[in-house]
Automatic annotation (TrEMBL):
It comes from the Bacteria. Residues 10-174 form the Alcohol dehydrogenase iron-type/glycerol dehydrogenase GldA domain. Belongs to the iron-containing alcohol dehydrogenase family. This is Iron-containing alcohol dehydrogenase. Coiled coil: none annotated. CDD domains: Fe-ADH.
Amino acid sequence: MADRLSVEPPGRTEFGAGVVAELPTFLEPLEEQRVLVVTDRGLRASGIVSRIEQILGDVEHVVHEDVGPNPTTDEVDRGAARLREFGRAVVLAVGGGSALDAAKGIALLAANPQATATGLPGRPVDGFPLVAVPTTAGTGAETNGFGVVEDPRLRRKVYIGHPSVRPRTAVLDPELTLGLPRSTTASSGFDALVHGIESLASRGANPVSQAFATQAITMLGRSLPAAHRDGTDLDARAEVLFGAHLAGHALTLSGLGLVHGIGHALTAQAGIPHGVALAAVAQEVMAFSAAEAAHAYATTARALGVGDAIEAVAEVCAALDIRRPLRELGVDREALPGIAAGAAADAVTRNAPRLPRDAEVLELLASVH
């Protein structure tokens, strides 16, 4: 504990069943009283977007629904143009991690008219204020000011963000997650669990991130299988949502690692859903890093109430029915070298407890093909 440590207080969090109904109250302290709602193309069918519009009532707002399941730099640029046209406003991000990540880029680029999602100036001005309403429990994107989007030309994930677009308020309403399909519950929830585990093992871990991560793992290990079994279990949904939120705070402080480095590459280059990509390689990466991350994995095992962290992750994967060989996910063996190179070059991989060479990542991928 001799190292210097600086931790910025997290933003405001409002948690509870039905709390989204208080949304106008949460907007009142912000300097802008107009709202651009940023959401993904499929969420309106769930009824959530219409409900948000009803709750906003007389608050002047428009809805921007041009966000895909893996948001691209082009989508962020289009959203920023839409916000510049609308004028200064609060950006209200509603949806899963895709909508929240895209909204951060939109809020930042709209305030920097010469910037694009692939070309941000070295000293950007502050972005527009942002409020986040997550409708999935996984990414923790409501806890930080950076987003992960896809550059379709380079076929890789890129990071865009700034401290000014960290959500001023995170509105965590577990009722909004009750309609999630089992597959989405599994994918997003496993992502959150890996956030906790990789945060504990990260080179950037510190006592604050470790506290967030340990509690997140405890809550997710206890309630994620239950939420997957019974999507109407509000208590389980609530605990998974808050656990994912805590894991988001952890990763914001510590960074992640190789599981996410590989996951980003698999999603960008092979189109595999993020949580499914993580499940394909998590156990093998943990085994690869077992010696260097021994203390972190021991903490993980205690948080999960078991003796071995890797075996526990295998059990969670089985309960969620989420793990598949890469060949079953449509990945050709010829694509593995490019995926390995992308994973090794990903910024999150630099936080891994054991830094891999391209050849070692390729070997890991081949073992799960």
